[in-house]
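R.M. (postdoc): so does anyone remember the format we settled on? I'll just put the structure tokens first.
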């Protein structure tokens, strides 16, 4: 039977070829995590849970939407 080029083992091998240290690889962190963390921080600043609830209580739906879109 010929070796397959798909499936979990192949995906893991390919992932580790790009990111030898796995999820702790500096390149992985830069490419896949850093921008997501920065977006999370912006979200927390613009529309954290308390602020979201406050705006909903005021029925400021357009403001909620504007902040969400701006953060994305």
């Amino acid at each position: 039977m010929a070796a397959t080029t798909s499936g979990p083992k192949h995906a893991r091998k390919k992932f580790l070829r790009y990111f030898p240290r796995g999820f702790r690889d500096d390149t992985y962190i830069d490419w896949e995590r850093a921008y997501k963390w920065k977006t999370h921080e912006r979200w927390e600043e613009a529309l954290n849970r308390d602020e979201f609830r406050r705006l909903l209580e005021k029925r400021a739906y357009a403001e909620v939407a504007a902040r969400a879109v701006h953060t994305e």
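R.M.: ...and that's the designed sequence above, right after the tokens. Also worth knowing: The first helix runs from residue 8 to 18. The chain has four helices and no strands.
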